[in-house]
Amino acid sequence: MSHFGSYEERIKNFSWTLAEKELDFADGHPVNIGWYCSDRICRQGKAAKMALIWEGLGGVEKRYTYNDVRLASNTIGAFLRSLGVKSGDRVCLFMDKIPELYIGFLGILKIGAIAQPLFSAFGDESLYIRLADAETGTIMTQRKHLSKVRKIIGQMPYLKHIIVVDYDGRKPLQDREVAFSLEAADPVEKLEIAPTTAESPSVLHYTSGTTGKPKGVKHVHYSLIAQYLTAKWVLDLHDDDIYWCTADPGWVTGTSYGIIGPFSLGVTQCVTDVGFSAESWYRFIEKHRVTVWYSAPTAIRSLMKAGDELVKKFDLSSLRHLTSVGEPLNAEAVIWSERVFGLPFHDTYWQTETGSIMITNFPGMKIKPGSMGRAFPGITATVLDVDTYQPLTQPGKVGLIGIKPGWPSMMREYWKNEETYKGKFKNGWYIPGDRSSIDVDGYFWFTGRDDDIINTAGHLVSPFEVESALLGHEAVAESAVVAKPDDVNMEVVKAFVSLKPGFSASKDLELEIMNFIRKKLSPLAMPQEIEYVASLPKTRSGKIMRRLLRAREWGEEIGDTSTLENDDQ
Amino acid sequence: MNDIKDVILKYVRAEYLEEDDDEIDFDSPLISGGIVDSFSMVSLKRFLENKYSISIPDEEATPDAFDTVNKIARLVQRFIK
C-alpha cells in the first residue's frame, strides 16, 4: 500500500501543516535539517538502524547507523567550529560520492553554516566562478581534487580553509590546507545545534543561466517540509525500504533526495561511488536488495542499450518502485522498464530552484508514458501564454509552465542577484523556463526548454559559459554553442568555432579544444562535436544567432532571418 | 599491440588522472573505476580515431569496451587495417 493513496483524496484540503505535524515543527521554533536527519531519528528509537551503506571501488564497503551519522556529523560540525566557521558562512563540499560528503553536509547544517555542494568533476574555472560568487570561506575536498583548488587559490583571498578529508601525509600540505580524518577523529557526542529557524539559509546550489554567470540558488531549512513529504509520497519511502538515489549531491537531486528526504524519514539508503556500467548497477541492486530506485533518463536509456538479456542475469526482484528525474522520460523507457523489471519508471519534474518535486507520476496512479504526470498536492501549476503569462485553458495547448509561489522548498533568492531572481516571476507565477501542455486529465506533457540552456544527461549547461571558456583557447576567435540531439543524453554540447589567423582546422585541434573545455569547465560542458566555420551567423547588431544554428542541428524550421547580417550564412 | 597499450596508458595518465590519483595499469578499471566518465569517453574515442586513423562505430564504443587499457587496445586493433 503506497503512502500516497488516491490523488483526489490527497488534493482535498491539502495543507503543508500535515508534514509540519509529522515533523513536530511549530512556527517560530528552531528547525535544523542536520538535526532532523540524524539526532531526531535516533530519538525515535532508530539509533542502531542502518542509515548509509556506501560502496567504493574494489567492493570496499562502509556502513553507518543513524547513531554513527549523528556522531560523525557532530564531529565534522565541531571541527568546522574549531576553525572558526560560523552560522551563515559558506562551506563548499567538493568531493566524489564518499561518506564525508553525505555526513559533512549534515555537519555543516548543524552549525548553521550554508552547504555549497559542487560537482567534483568541475574544472578549475567552473569551481572558481562558483566559489568567488559565494565568497566561500571553507572547502572540504579530497587529495585528488586539490590540484584544481591550488590553481585558483591565489584569486580567492576569502577562502580561509581547505580541508583535506583523506590526507595521507605523503606530500606536504600547502597554504591554508588542513587535514581532517573522520575515522581518526574523536567522535563528538554532544554538539550544540545552531538555533536555525525556518528561513535560515541551508543550501546554496549553483545552476547555469542562459547568459551571465551561474546562479547561486539559496534554500532554507524550511525546505525540509516539502522534501520530507515528497520523499514519502512520491518516492513512497517506507521504514523497511532500501533506497538508492543515483544522483550526485553536487546537484540538487543528490541533496534533496539523496540526503534530506531519505534521512529525515529514517530510511536506509545505499550509495555507490563506482562509475556507471549496466552490469555493476544491476549487481548493486541485487547485492543490497534495493527496493526503491531514483535514477535518471540518461542512465535508463544506457541500461536499455545494454539489452534485456543482461537484466535476466540478476535477481532484481527486490525492486518495488522506480522513479526518474533530470530530463523528460521518454515513453519507450517507461514501456521498457515495465517489460524488463515488471515496474514502470515514474517521471518526476522539478528543478534546482523548486527544491522539491512539483509535477509527477504518483505511485498507484495511471501512468501515461511520456507524460510528466500531475501537480503535487499544494502545488498550483499550469501552462501560461508565452506573451501575456495568462493561464491557458485549452487542453493540449503548449505554453510556459508556471507555478504559484509559496511552497516550502522554493528558493529564497539567487545569491547576490536580485534582478535575475525577480525576472523569474511573471504575472504572479514562478517560471521554471520549460514549455509544456496539459491534457484533459490534468497530465503535463513536456515539449522543451524556453531558452538556450542545454540539458545534457539531466544537467544544465550554459552555452554562454562554454563560449566564454572557448575564447580562452589560443586558436578560437569566435564561437557559438548549442544543444545537439543525442539518443542517450537527450542533448549534448556542440560548438561552432571560427579560428584566429594562423590556425588551421584539424581533427587534432578539435580534440585539443574538447579537452581544454573538459578540464576548465567539466566533462558535461565539453563539446562532443566541434564544427569549424569561417564566420558565425549574426544579427545586424552583431549578436550571434544561436537559434539558427540550433534549428539546423534539430532539423527545425529556421524561422525569421530578417535580422541576419549576411543571408548567405 | 604493446605499443598501442603504452600509447593509451600514457594518454589516459596525462589527460584523465587527477594529480593524486592512484597509479593505473593495463587492467585498471577506467570507466567503472570513475577515472573516465561517459562524457570524457568521447574525447578518448576521438583521440584513438585521430591517432590510428580509424573510425570506431558508436555501438562498439561501450563503457565495457573502454573499461581497461587492455580492452581498448583490443578494440583499436580490430579497426586498424
What brief labels describe this structure?
heterodimer, A: 569 residues, alpha/beta, Rossmann fold, GMP Synthetase, Chain A, domain 3, 2 domains, 9-stranded mixed beta sheet, 5-stranded parallel beta sheet, 18 helices, 28 strands, globular, B: 81 residues, mainly alpha, Non-ribosomal Peptide Synthetase Peptidyl Carrier Protein, Chain A
What does this structure look like?
The complex is a heterodimer of chains A (569) and B (81). Chain A is α/β, with parallel strands linked by helices and 569 residues long. Chain A has two domains: 430 residues, Rossmann fold; 101 residues, ANL, C-terminal domain (GMP Synthetase, Chain A, domain 3, 2-Layer Sandwich), CATH 3.30.300. Chain A is 29% helix and 22% strand. Chain A contains 18 helices and 28 strands. In chain A, strand 13, helix 14 and strand 14 form a beta-alpha-beta unit. The radius of gyration of chain A is 24 Å and the shape is globular. The model of chain A has no long low-confidence stretch (mean pLDDT 94). Chain B is mainly alpha-helical and 81 residues long. Chain B has one domain: ACP-like (Non-ribosomal Peptide Synthetase Peptidyl Carrier Protein, Chain A). In chain B, helix 1 packs across helix 3. Chain B is globular and about 35 Å long. Classes of the chains: A alpha/beta (569), B mainly alpha (81). The interface between A and B is medium-sized, with 35 and 26 residues.
